[in-house]
Design a protein that fits this description.
- The protein is an alpha/beta fold.
- The chain has a single domain, classed as Rossmann fold (3-Layer(aba) Sandwich).
- The chain is built from 7 helices and 7 strands, in the order αβαβαβαααβαβββ.
- α3 links the parallel β2 and β3.
- α4 crosses α5, α5 packs parallel to α7 and α6 crosses α7.
């Protein structure tokens, strides 16, 4: 018997906790993708059927709020495909990937990620290692979250921002203090974000709110 597709429990808890807040934004990793062949960048890797099914479940949850849904996504196929299953139109954004808010030297970044691997680079970044090809984690996180804040301020409805583990995880780590020790961000998992006072944001991670000053 096939197990029905579901969205991460922590995201469900955050959606419930933020149910009465509007407008809202979601910063999420893309849905389940196919494996990336060894030695390839994976730029053209698309979603698995399971990932598409999870998007349908999340789309139902978002639609139940009764608000218009709009989306931005990393230009990579797996992110654009995820976003298009959640919103009628999607705007590609390089702040969400290729290269995102952290990498400032793509050539050097490509070499380091290629030789050390994404997990090693991310765990070092979240632990405070100052990679020369990246902005400091605080600067990159504030850059992306500031963009999300400004978008919420000018667009009604619910905004969905689809990105990659290498971007969403450091943002969560900086904003909430969660370091993903012995853990990794699941497909279609992430945070729920609402405007707070002034330029601040309320960010829900696994159902718990954190006030973040930008």
């Amino acid at each position: 018997m096939t197990t029905p597709a579901s969205i991460p429990g922590g995201l469900v808890a955050s959606i419930d906790a933020a149910a009465n807040r509007r407008p809202l934004a979601f910063l999420l990793r893309h849905a389940d993708r196919a494996d990336i062949p060894a030695g390839e960048s994976g730029d053209d890797v698309g979603l698995l059927a399971l990932g598409e099914e999870r998007c349908e479940v999340l789309a139902g949850a978002l639609g139940g709020r009764g608000d218009a849904i709009w989306a931005e996504a990393s230009p990579l196929i797996r992110c654009m495909s995820t976003a298009l299953l959640l919103a009628p139109t999607v705007e590609p954004s390089n702040l969400l990937g290729d290269p995102g808010p952290f990498v400032v030297d793509c050539e050097e970044g490509g070499r380091v990620f290629g030789s050390l691997g994404t997990e090693y680079v991310l765990r070092a970044q979240m632990a405070g290692h100052p990679w020369s090809f990246m902005r400091p984690i605080e600067d990159g996180a504030k850059l992306l979250l500031g963009h999300i804040r400004d978008s919420l301020g000018r667009r009604p409805g619910t905004g969905v921002f689809i990105s990659h583990d290498a971007i969403v995880m450091p943002v969560i780590a900086w904003a909430t203090g969660y370091r993903f020790d012995a853990a990794w961000l699941a497909p279609l998992d992430g945070v729920v974000i609402a405007l707070s006072s002034g330029e601040d944001l309320t960010i829900w991670w696994r159902g718990e709110p954190v006030e973040v000053s930008l």
